[in-house]
Design goal:
The protein has 200 residues and is of the alpha+beta class. It is 20% helix and 40% strand. The chain has 3 helices and 11 strands. It has an 8-stranded mixed beta sheet with strand order 9-10-8-7-6-5-4-11, with helices on both faces. The protein has a 3-stranded antiparallel beta sheet with strand order 1-2-3, with no helix packed on it.
Length: 200
């Protein structure tokens, strides 16, 4: 018999007669197929985004000791990628923050995706897309970021260019700028948009 694992813990199994039977697989993890990319407007979304940042930048990468929060968080807008369990929001699995440093000049920082969701392939790019497009709707004329070097290729694929290669917090980074022509203004970031996962 040939079996195929479905995205919600269902196993499609073909028997000797060629018939397909759906069976629940109790050991298969639930993998959401859809995610809402939006501004973090609910307290639980903000708290979960902060916890995810600590998990990535403190516990996993060791860039910060116990907390990555800084003064930018006082003025920044947090964005989140929220997974769905059926039709209900389940958990924050990605985040980034944006802020206007001076009139028209916006920055993105602290892009993080939960380790178990990185192979999905759309969350980082969707967060970047909403970050730049929502800033454009607020009058952005330049959008910048300091990107860890291992992530520079992703940003290049999304129409960013490297201005300079620098070192921050003991790690190599690319100082990058988005090509705004590829990011039309998005006026409703509080609601955001839905994105579907890609097959691994």
């Amino acid at each position: 018999m040939r079996s195929v694992l479905g995205p919600i813990g269902l196993r499609a199994q073909r028997n000797a007669n060629g018939r397909v039977c759906l069976m629940f697989d109790p050991v298969a993890p639930f993998v959401p197929t859809g995610f809402q990319i939006k501004f973090a407007v609910e307290p639980w979304e903000r708290a979960a985004a902060a916890a995810l940042r600590r998990a990535v930048f403190c516990a996993e990468q060791g860039v910060f000791v116990s907390d990555d929060r800084d003064a930018i968080d006082d003025v920044a807008i947090p964005l989140v990628a929220v997974s769905f369990l059926g039709v209900a929001a389940d958990e924050v699995v990605g985040t980034v923050r944006i802020h206007e440093a001076e009139p028209g000049v916006w920055w993105g920082s602290r892009l993080a995706v939960a380790a178990e969701y990185r192979k999905i392939g759309v969350l980082g790019s969707a967060l970047i897309r909403l970050a730049v497009s929502s800033a454009r709707a607020r009058g952005c004329s330049r959008f910048l970021a300091n990107v860890q070097s291992q992530n520079a290729l992703l940003f290049r694929r999304l129409h960013w260019r490297t201005i300079d290669e620098i070192e921050l917090l003991g790690r190599p980074h690319h100082h990058m700028e988005a090509d705004l022509a590829f990011y039309p203004p998005f006026p409703n970031p509080e609601t955001g948009f839905l994105t579907l996962r890609k097959a691994a």
